[in-house]
Structures are given as structure tokens and as C-alpha cells.
Design a protein that fits this description.
Elements: H1 2-7, E1 13-19, H2 26-36, E2 41-47, H3 52-61, E3 68-71, H4 79-88, E4 97-101, E5 105-107, H5 113-122, E6 125-131, E7 143-144, H6 151-154, H7 159-163, H8 168-174, E8 184-185, E9 188-189, E10 193-197, H9 198-204, H10 216-227, E11 231-241, H11 251-270, H12 272-296
Parallel strand pairs: 1-2, 1-4, 2-3, 6-11
Antiparallel strand pairs: 4-10, 5-11, 6-10, 7-9, 8-11
Helix pairs in contact: 11-12
């Protein structure tokens, strides 16, 4: 695999990983990349907080096997902005596509040249099949419908979903029963495991940097819909995502705050004048949801 990474730069995939005070997550991810990536690949790790020393050690460890580049200076720019900068950061080669993986994720099966050919043929904003556990028994809702008024109670962590997991509103939004083979067209895909060609990324304009953390992937799906860019769930590539690597302890409340502010920004952006007229009602409800979630934690 190492020889292929270093010698074959046609169709180079740039793996982007954004770090935030979680250097312990990176070694398992890099080990999975070395084990499973069977196409030309480079890694750009963007340091959004306190990880540079550990990343330098990993650069030395993988020097002869996997090109790893470090971006950022430890300042937390937000997830979307960090990804945008990592996507355009100059390196020794020019990538043809981007692969986004959360640092607390690992590739669980081989990413082959046949997979890459399929991805390039569809040339869509593409999400992979993501699991909670190494045994790959519990699938995450990584490809969903766009949120609506019911999502507050029927989302992944909504009250209705907790009390009645098989209710039709949650199932329609989460789409956790999508087929596990073939290409499935969806509204949006999670940024925890996402592939997109460089040309499509430029066409979409990257992530909207008004979202500091969370919801930027939902927004990108809406932008894709607006511009006629297809969005697909491609379950042939499997990823295990151990949720919470960057949300432990006191960070959790901060992450929740950004999540809820992202909800409000999304509502205002995509509902036009109607959204602004309803904002005196919607904004307090979103703040109430934030307060209830943080109190429970």
C-alpha cells in the first residue's frame, strides 16, 4: 500500500481530519488508513486545538509510508472553516478528491480503486455507511432527509425517537433502514465520513463558515440540492465512528451550544422571510432545547 500511495498520484485522495484536543484518536485512524486505503492518498490534519506535538510524532512515524501534512496553529477556527482551509492547503501534490473523516473514526473495510472509480463516475456528494461499534451491529443515521418542524422531537436524540424508536416520523427523517448495497439518493450526508471530488467541492463553495460546529453538512446538502448536485449514500465503504472523541467533559456543553446555534442559523438561512418572521418563536424554542439537553447531561 505504501508504494502505491507514494508513486501513483493519479486520482489522489486527500483525507482531511480536523483535531481538537483529542490526539489519542488519530493513531487508530491512521492505522486504518494504512491498512485499508488501496488508492493514492495523502492526509491533511488540521490542528484546531493543542495537537501539534503529537501530530509531528505521527508524521515521523509514517514518513516513509503515508504523507501527512499539518495545517493550523492550534487556534479553533470552527470545523467548517478548518475543512475549507485543509481542502485548499498546498502540498506536494494536487488531489482530485476529498475524503472527510472524523478523528474518532476508522475505516472498517478496504477502499479500493474500484470504489474510487464508482465514486468518480457518480461524481456526487457521497456519504458512507457508518457504525457505532467495531462489530458493525449498530448503524448510525449518516444519511438523512432534511430537518423539518418534527425533527425537534423525531431527530436522532429526540424525545419521540427515544420513547418510540419505530415511529414513522423518526424513520422518515433518520432513514436508518436504507439498503446496505447499491447507491441510494438522499437529502444530506454526514461530514463524519464524506467523499467529494475537488470540482464538486469548488462548485458547492465548501462549507458555509457561519456554522462553527455541526449542521454545516446539512447545509451543504441543501446547497447541493439548490445547485443540482446529486447527494448519495454509498454503503460499500464502511466506517466505524466512536462518537464523542471531541465532546468529552466540559467540552460537551460548548459543542451543544454550537449545535443549537447551527440549527438556528440553518432555519434562518433556508426559510427566507418566513424564517425571520418566525424567529421570535423558533429561537426561544431552540434555546429551551439546549437548556434541557445540558441539564440532562
Amino acid at each position: 500500500m505504501a508504494e502505491q500511495i507514494m508513486s501513483n498520484q493519479n486520482g489522489l485522495v486527500r483525507l482531511i481530519v480536523v483535531m481538537f484536543h483529542n490526539p489519542h484518536d488519530l493513531p487508530p485512524l491512521l492505522a486504518s488508513v494504512e491498512r485499508h486505503m488501496q488508492v493514492a492518498c495523502e492526509v491533511v490534519v488540521w490542528d484546531n486545538g493543542g495537537c501539534a506535538a503529537e501530530i509531528h510524532k505521527l508524521q515521523e512515524l509514517y514518513a516513509a509510508r503515508l504523507p501527512i501534512y499539518l495545517g493550523g496553529n492550534g487556534q479553533n477556527l470552527g470545523f467548517g472553516k478548518a475543512v475549507n482551509l485543509a481542502a485548499t492547503m498546498p502540498t506536494a501534490h494536487v488531489p482530485s478528491s476529498l475524503l472527510l473523516l472524523n478523528p474518532d473514526a476508522v475505516l472498517a473495510n478496504d477502499f479500493t480503486s474500484a470504489h474510487l472509480n464508482e465514486l468518480q463516475l457518480h461524481n456526487a456528494l457521497t456519504g458512507f455507511q457508518v457504525f457505532d461499534d467495531a462489530a458493525m451491529q449498530k448503524r448510525q443515521a449518516s444519511a438523512r432527509r432534511f430537518p423539518n418542524i418534527m425533527t425537534a422531537v423525531a431527530g436522532r436524540e429526540g424525545v419521540l425517537t427515544k420513547l418510540w424508536p419505530q415511529n414513522p416520523f423518526s424513520k422518515a427523517y433518520l432513514q436508518d433502514d436504507l439498503p446496505t448495497t447499491g447507491w441510494q439518493q438522499v437529502d444530506w450526508v454526514s461530514g463524519s465520513a464524506l467523499w467529494v471530488s475537488i470540482d464538486r467541492w469548488r462548485e458547492l463553495g465548501g462549507y458555509d463558515e457561519r456554522y462553527f460546529l455541526y449542521v454545516e453538512d446539512v447545509d451543504l446538502g441543501r446547497e447541493a440540492q439548490r445547485k443540482g448536485v446529486p447527494v448519495y449514500f454509498y454503503p460499500e465503504i464502511k466506517v466505524v465512528h466512536y462518537i464523542g472523541g471531541t465532546r468529552k467533559g466540559s467540552i460537551n456543553k460548548i459543542a451543544e451550544w454550537h449545535h443549537h446555534m447551527g440549527m438556528l442559523a440553518y432555519f434562518l438561512k433556508w426559510n427566507g422571510l418566513f424564517g425571520w418572521l418566525l424567529s421570535p418563536v423558533v429561537a426561544p424554542l431552540i434555546l429551551l432545547r439546549y437548556a434541557l439537553r445540558t441539564l440532562r447531561s
